[in-house]
Amino acid sequence: MVKGYAIGRAAIMGAAALEVNHYRIQDDDVEAECQRLQRAIEVAAQELQTLIDTLPADAPLEMGPLLEVHRLLLEDPMLSQQAGEFIRERHYNAEWALTTQGQILAEQFLAMEDDYLRERGADIRQVIERVLRVLSGSTSLLTNLESVNDSNDPLIVVARDISPGDMLRLREGRFAAFLTDLGGPTSHTAIVARSMNVPAVVALGHLRSLVRDGDMLVADGSSGVVLVNPSPKVLAEYRERQADYLRERKELESLRDAPAVTLDGFNIKLEANIELPEEAQMALDAGAEGIGLFRSEFLFMGRPDLPTEEEQYLAYAAVVKTMAGKPVTIRTLDIGSDKTLDGDATVATNPALGLRAIRYCLAKPELFATQLRALLRATVHGHVRILIPMISHMHEVRAALQAIEAAGRELNARGVPYTRNYSVGAMVEIPAMAIAIEPFVEALDFLSIGTNDLIQYTLAIDRGDADVSSLYDPMHPAVLRLIAHTINAGERAGKPVAVCGEMAGDARVTRMLLGLGLKEFSMHPQQLLDVKKEIRQAHSNALRVKVAAALNRAQRIDLSDLS
Ligand code: PEP
Ligand code: MG
């Protein structure tokens, strides 16, 4: 889901697969029908190639590879050959043959164990949609756009699913929201909608069959609620909510260039967490003072192979260049636990406690060295802060530092340029490190507290397990003591300490974190202004006294006491 309200008229996106004619063809027509299918596949593949070749510079980075996957699926004989058989043997028309084969393939994908492959079922469906559109001779995505467009109301796209290619086309259309029956939080619809700052609700189930072109819709991207033809009273209520939301956003926008300074004059640094290079622009737009966490694993996930040194270098360099002198913190690969590499069949007994993050990288020196070389090469464009995740032992810090040195020597030997313009820090995510923090502070240039994992490991709560999620408690005094201990050690040694877990972006706990002495916060760009607003209304010293008093007695902190 993508936050925000939209009120407008439905513009239904045709799902050709739901509307194809099924008929049998004559013996004499078999060859012509096979050719009709083959030609349509070729045209669809050509359309995709054109999209790839003319990808707008500001399109989300994963768009190119996604379109390439679609093009490859079209070339795969499992689609065309088997559909051709249905035409020859059963005399199905081309559309029928194609959808039948599509159904078979989608079911095969759906039954697969591997998440990545299962998701490819959606790609098959989208690719077939494209070929069906060619077969029908229709080029427009929104069949009745003209008639709907008569009114001056904004338009809301309602679709079964939206392929990456179609999303690129719709991007031009200035739609007020996107609503789809299929998809998940990381589906292309959500990704592109977020990059356009337009509300989206996905996985709605059967909306498309319930809505007609021109119906009045209300979409609430925050709660995922969609209302169809609401009563005038409800509509008025939502118009008010939308206006309030926009007013609040506007008020917050005005804080974009305001300093994040407390009432008693403490300057707080607000940085952004990103997962893909192009999000760096979002971070700048939100007024971030740097990138506090670039989760590099997203370059590695959702693909069958590993990114090359060159590919990684280009991604890291792009962020450094975009941030133009502002600090950029890039975390080395944090894989294992909830994030796995495709094609890596090793499943640990308990992945959260297994070969994860730095442990994984040290066990795969070549993979680690490739990433480190790419990171060092990015220093040619500006300062790079290398952040090592999941550290628990000092010998891991030493091994990581040695690996960085070795990567530099390798670049020297190859005559590839890099500079010494980098610093090395570690994530504080494991209680053992937080408790015995002093040598780590000494050996490293900076620390960043990953509260998401620190909470999981302190409370022995699997962060991905819904059955115990009620026990996942960021406010547990043990967690807060570990955070406070780390911040204090950093303060004493004059080394920066940030928090980059979800807590940093939760405006409800901003005052509490200030009370713990935190001076650097890193969060999703969208959360930045809410947090800044809290900071500008807080009195840091008073908060420190209150929070310290509660923590000394290991008492729970009542957030309402801090407001
Ligand atoms: C964390 O653990 O708090 C963190 C920022 O890392 P991730 O959520 O990627 O594990
Ligand atoms: Mg973590």
Describe this structure in words.
This protein has 563 residues and is α/β, with parallel strands linked by helices. It has helices at residues 30-53, 63-75, 77-90, 94-110, 115-136, 145-148, 164-171, 188-196, 207-210, 232-253, 279-285, 309-323, 358-363, 365-378, 394-414, 431-435, 438-443, 451-459, 477-493, 510-515, 528-536, 540-552; strands at residues 5-12, 155-159, 177-180, 200-201, 216-220, 225-228, 269-274, 291-295, 328-331, 384-388, 422-428, 446-449, 497-499, 520-523. It has three domains: 5-13 and 141-252, 3-Layer(bba) Sandwich (Glucose Oxidase, domain 1); 27-136, Enzyme I, Chain A, domain 2 (Orthogonal Bundle); 261-562, Phosphoenolpyruvate-binding domains (TIM Barrel), CATH 3.20.20. It has 22 helices and 14 strands. The strands form two sheets. The chain has an eight-stranded parallel β-barrel with strand order 7-8-9-10-11-12-13-14, surrounded by five helices. A six-stranded mixed beta sheet has the order 4-3-2-1-5-6. Strand 2 (155-159), helix 7 (164-171) and strand 3 form a beta-alpha-beta unit. The two termini are 30 Å apart. Bound molecules: phosphoenolpyruvate and magnesium ion (MG). Phosphoenolpyruvate binds next to strand 8 and helix 18.
